[in-house]
Amino acid sequence: MNAELAGWTAPHVARIEAELARVMPEVTGPFREALLYPLRTGGKRIRPLLALAAAESVGGSAEAALDAAIALEMIHTYSLVHDDLPAMDDDDERRGRPTVHVVYGDATAILVGDGLLTAAFERVADSSALVKELARAAGPAGMVGGQYLDIKAQVRSLDELVHLHELKTGALIRAACRMGGFCGGADADQLVALTRYGAAVGLAFQVADDVLDADQDAGEGGPPSYVRLLGLEATRAEAHRLAVDAITAAQELPNPHVLVALARFTVERTV
What we know:
By secondary structure, this protein is mainly alpha-helical. The chain is 70% helix and 1% strand.
């Protein structure tokens, strides 16, 4: 991450972390600790950052998009809690820490995911446009639909792999850009540009992940991946092509600089 982007990101991440620590204040005791546990595991916070940057890109303020940003991260976190369960990916560790079901048990982990999902909509309940956007992106026509395709391994071609990731990863990232645009007062043309940007960045993010995971993805026995289907160099080229598409869309906006930097970071990151 270059110094300029890091300078923009640091205070926004600090604000996001502070807000995440305060969510669901009405819940107390052991269940609150379980609910906050996955929110404290860190991560890039790319979805809330994109929402804040999108609001600024159309001349609005990041503050106006903060509730949307927190809702997006709560949805993303719930999906990881459920993904890690034994019935799904059966992962015992995430970002160097035991996963929720390992610490608190399967039943509590399910309820933690349910709680984060439901509470996310409370953050945006004053705006029917934001609720509709978030529900569409997170539901069966978006992230959940992509997760279904993933666990059923219904991927045999590049087109099917692209479709899976447009849903599982891309839908929520695209929604982050659109929701930030709504909060920032985007007009119709700006929302079109943000939608194009979000679609390209969402797919670039996953393609870049496959480059980072190249060793485990390249073999015939590994999971469906761009590296296995295209090869490593073609996958790198595809990630950069998608980043260029995102940058081109962002440059149609009044203040594109942070979105441009985030698109570049998406494909240049090393973790």
